[in-house]
Amino acid sequence: MKHLQHIGLIAGTFIAASFAASVNAADTPFPSTYKASSHAPTLITNATVLTGTGERLEAASLYFVDGKIVSVGEPPSELTSDTRIIDAEGSWVTPGIIDVHSHLGVYPSPGVDAHSDGNEATAPVTAEVWAEHSVWPQDPGFGRALAGGITAMQILPGSANLFGGRGVTLKNVASVTYQGMKFPDAPYGLKMACGENPKRVYGRKGSGPSTRMGNIAGYRAAWIKATDYRDEHAKYEALSDEEKKEAKKPKRDLELETLAGVLDGDIIIHMHCYRADEMMTILDLAKEFDYKVGTFHHGVEAYKISSELAENGVCGALWADWWGFKMEAYDGIQENIALVDRPEGSCSVVHSDSDEGIQRLNQEAAKAMSRGNKAGMDIAPERAIKWITSNAAKSLGIDDQTGSLTTGLMADVVIWSGNPFSVYAKANQVFIDGVERYNRDDPTLQPVSDFELGQLLEVSQ
Amino acid sequence: MKKMTVLVALAVGLQGINASADSLRIDNATIMTMGGMGTLEAADILIEDGEITAIGSDLSEDADRVIDANGAIITPAMFAGATTTGLVEVNAVRESVDSSVSETPLSKLHVEFDVRRAYSPLSSLHAITRTEGFGYTLLAATGGQYSIAGVGSLVDFDGGFDSFSGDDTIFIDVDGYASRKVGGSRAAHWMLLEGAMADLDGRASEQEYLTQAGRDVLKRLKSDGVFVFAANRAADIKQVIGFADEHDINAVIVGAREAWMLADELADSDIAVMVNGLDNLPADFDSLGSRLDNAALLSNAGVTVMFTSDETHNARKIRQGAGTAVAYGMDYDLALQAMTTTPAEVFGGRSRALAVGYSADLVVWSGDPLEVTSYATAVVIEGKLTSMESRQSKLLERYLPEDAGMGRAYINR
Questions:
Q1: Tens of pLDDT along A212-243?
Q2: A293 forms bridges with which residues in the sheet?
Q3: Is B326 in contact with A323 (Cβ distance < 8 A)?
Q4: CATH 3.20.20.140 fits B2-75+361-396, yes or no
Q5: Phi-psi bin for B13: left (phi > 0), alpha (psi -120 to 50), beta?
Q6: pTM score, whole prediction
C-alpha cells in the first residue's frame, strides 16, 4: 500500500491503481516457485524460548501447524493424534536466524574466478542487474548456514558500484533453482555503496567517480534521471485509454525501473556505508529525492550517529568486531551494535557479509551483547536475539511474515543445544515454514550440495 | 627487556596506575597454569620484579598491589596466531603495510627478507589486541615474489622495539593459489625449494637460487629455525612431510584444512599444525575436505595443534576458533594449551606456563577464556599490570555518554 500512497502524492490518487498494475507486471518476472511441503502439527515443549519480540519464556511450548505458528508459551488444550511432540528440555528455541547481508551463491564456494558473480564492476551505476541472476544454488555455504540456524537471508551484489543492483531475499531451502528458494512476496532490495570502494574501482579505471564528492554527484545524477522516468511513466499511465492511443508510450529502462521502484517505496535501499559523516550525507540525499534509506550496512561508525539513525528509522546492519582493513573501517569498536541499539526506536542488526560469519550469527550477537554489557548497558539475550531475527526481518521488509515467534507468522524456528549466546551452542533442529529442514543427529536431514556430492570418495571418514 | 619496561611504565603511568609497583599479588583465582601445577582453585599468585615467585593458597607475602580476582579464571597470556601486527596499520593503505614484498631487485628466492626489520610495537593494533588477553604473536611474512614470503619469529606485546623471541621462522607458500607466482604449477614450488637447498649445498652450478645473504639465512634456518608451510590440500601436506624428512628441517603446516587425512603421519613426523578453527568450507579445490572437527581429529591422533585466525586487526577472533574446535570435539585443555603455551614450545623461546621462576604473563578473564562472551579484565605482561586502554576503548569512552557536552572532540581524556 505504501506504493499506492506514494504515487498518489505525485500524480493524483485516481491514477494510482492502473500504474501500480503496470509496475507489478514489470515486477513479476522470475517469480518464486517455493512452496512449503506439508508437515505434521508440531509441539515443542519445555524449552527456554526467546520470542524475537523481546520476551523470554521458561519451560515454554511452541506449537505450529501448516507452516504457521499457532501458540507460544502454553501448549494447546487439545492435540491431534498426528502431532509430533519434541521435548526440548535444556534446549533454547528462537525464531529462525536471518542474515540481511550475504553473498552466498554470488560469491560461492569454491571461490574460483568462474564463480565471481557478485560485482558488475563495469560501470558505477548498474541498478539494472539483479543478484538473483548470479546466485548458484549449489553453493555449499547454504547448507553450512542452515546448520547455523539461518532460515532466510538477503543475497546482495557487491559494493564496487554506487548502485550495485537488486538484492534478493531467499528462504534457506535446498533447491536446484534460485526461484525455488525465493522468499514469496519479499520486497526487493537495492544495493548502494558509499565511500572507498566505488571511488577506488572507478578511480583506477580513470572513468570516475574517483572521490567521495564524485560518488555523491553520481547518485544525484541517477536520482534525477529516475525521478524524470518515474514521472514520465506516471503521466502516461494517467492518460485515458483513448489518450494512450495518441500518446507515445515511454520506453522501459531496467536501470531506471529499479530506481523508480525505490522512489515509489517498493524497493528497499540497503547501503554499504562506513563513516558517520557519509551516512548523514546520504540521509540528506534521500531527503532531496524523497526516498527512504532502509538499512546502512557495515556502518563501522554507526555508533557515532546512533540517535540520528533511530530518529530516521534506519536500521544499522553491523559486524561484532571486524575493523581496520581500510581507512573507513579504522574507527570500529566492539560496542557498535549495542550503542546503535540503545536509542528508542532503534533497529540494530547483526549481519555477516561472510560465508563463515553467517554460520554463527548467534555468536556474533553474543559478542556484541557481551561488549554492550561490559560498557554498562543492560542487554539480555531476549533483547539481543532481535538483532538477528525480528530486526533483520524488519530490515528486509518481511517482519509481517517471519522474524519472531508470533501467532500467525511463518514457523521458522531453531532448537539450540543450549543458550545460543555461546560458542558451544549448536543449532540442533531447524524448521522453515514448519518443515524440519535440518537435524544435527539425522544425516538424512542434512542437505548436501551437488558440488560436494561424490568428492574425496577415496578418503575414509 | 629493559627498554620495554620503560614503555609499559610510561603507558601505565598515564593511566594513573601505580607504575612503581614492583610486586603484584592476585588472590582468589582459578589459576589454569598450563604447566605442572595444573589448575588450582581459590589460589593466589605472587609476582615480583616481573617473575612469578609463588603460586598457592592463602599467600601471605606483602605486595605493592593486591587484586582480588573473586574466583575469576587466570591463564597465561594468549597467543594471537600468525599475524602481521606491527607490520600494518590499515590493510588498504599500502604504505602502512610491510608484511609482503612483491617485487625485489633480483630474481632470486629471497630467504633473507626479514619482516622484523619493519616491525613497530607502537601500532594501534598492539593495545587493541593485548587488552583482549593476548601476549604474543607469530610475526609472519605474507605473500612474496615466489614461494618464499620471508622470515619472522615470535614477538611479545610488551611494547619493545625488538621483543622477538624463539627461533627464526620462515614462511613458505606451497598451495595451489600461490602456484600462479611460480609459473602456474605447484610442482614449481618444490622445484625452487629443492633448488635452494641444492644451492645451499653448493650443488647449484648453473642456476643460483639464493643470494649469499640468503644462503647464510637458510643455513641458519636449516639447523635452528622453523619452516612454516602454507598448505591445505592433503597431497601438498604429504609433500611437506617428505621435504621435511629429506632435509631434516623443523616444519609446521599452517592452514592444514585437509590435514586430518594425514593425522597419523603428521604425528609420527612430529610436524605441528596451525589451523583456523572456523574453517569448514570448500573454499577452493585445495580444501574440499575442510571440516570443523579437523583440530579435534588431529589432536586426538597426537598431532600438536595450534590456532590462527587469518586476521591481524581482528586477531582476537582466534579465541572463537579455539572454542569452536572444542565444540566440535577437541579436548578443552589441549585447546587452551594451543592458545597459550604450545606456540612457544613449537617456535622456541621461554615457557609461557605459569610457574615459579617464570616470567609473569597472564590474563584475568571474566569467564571461560574460550567463550565468546568472555573478555580479559586484566592483562599482566612481564609482571606489570598493563593499561586496558586502546584506541578503541578511547572511542567508546568518547561516544558512550549520551550527552556530548561541548562536542565529542572535547571528550578526550
A1: 999 999 999 999 999 999 999 999 999 999 99
A2: A269
A3: no
A4: no
A5: alpha
A6: 0.94
